[in-house]
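Structure in, sequence out. Go:
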């Protein structure tokens, strides 16, 4: 059951310079947060985030599915430390959305079935009939880079951002696509949602992809509004980040889980 009863650390817009523009989350306050790990000759390292939907299913971004991706870590906070809360589980099977496009990042969503069940609190799915309006505050979390082109964080970071008006986000990325040769990724508001401040300074970045974009309503349970997907730069002025709109995929998610 996706019941939330954990205390979160306070966040203010100028409280740090991480995730970009966030601060350290309280350990255990985002229990559904997953770290996807790739293993190679040099050992294992964090690739992307994810969100636990049930005791054996994690949702992430399809572009995070790379060669060598074998494990999901849950209950983590400081990636440098080993704790009793940390649970590492092998990925049994991967389900990319059948219409995912690696060039345009359309349908950038995937499900991971874990080899064994975990005892971690999952996050609720959104109501597919409900649309969150522009200005709705969402929480983003991850171990991604703390600045554009910077280094990743060892501890889980958080930031609050508003949802951006769809038409504004579409216009911004149309301008970018027209100005940059080979930039073919555009915003489809039916399946994507945008986050950020006009003045920039707060954003997700490399390594945060696949992670959760969560709404904590005044009443009711927290729910997964988005999956961190893509953007042009990190925390740039006037340029929002782009996320998968999870409400558009609830039926697909339930179908995959129920039939597997």
């Amino acid at each position: 059951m996706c019941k939330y009863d954990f205390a979160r650390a306070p966040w203010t817009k100028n409280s740090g310079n991480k995730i970009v523009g966030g601060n350290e989350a309280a350990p255990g306050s985002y229990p559904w947060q997953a770290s996807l790990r790739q293993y190679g000759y040099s050992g294992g390292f964090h690739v992307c985030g994810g969100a636990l939907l049930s005791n054996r299913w994690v949702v992430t971004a399809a572009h995070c599915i790379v060669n060598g991706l074998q494990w999901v870590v849950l209950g983590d906070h400081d990636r440098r430390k080993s704790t009793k809360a940390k649970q590492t589980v092998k990925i049994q099977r991967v389900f990319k959305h059948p219409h995912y496009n690696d060039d345009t990042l359309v349908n950038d969503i995937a499900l991971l079935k874990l080899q064994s069940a975990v005892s971690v609190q999952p996050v609720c799915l959104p109501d597919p009939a409900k649309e969150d309006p522009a200005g709705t505050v969402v929480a983003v979390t991850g171990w991604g880079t703390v600045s554009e082109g910077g280094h990743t964080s060892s501890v889980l970071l958080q930031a609050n951002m508003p949802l951006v008006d769809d038409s504004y986000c579409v216009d911004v990325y149309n301008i970018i696509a027209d100005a940059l040769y080979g930039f073919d990724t555009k915003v489809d508001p039916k399946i994507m949602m945008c986050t950020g401040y006009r003045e920039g300074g707060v954003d997700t970045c490399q390594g945060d992809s696949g992670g959760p974009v969560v709404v904590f309503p005044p009443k009711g349970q927290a729910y997964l509004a988005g999956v961190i997907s893509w953007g042009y730069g990190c925390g740039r002025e006037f340029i929002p980040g782009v996320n998968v709109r999870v409400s558009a995929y609830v039926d697909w998610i339930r179908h995959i889980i129920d039939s597997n």
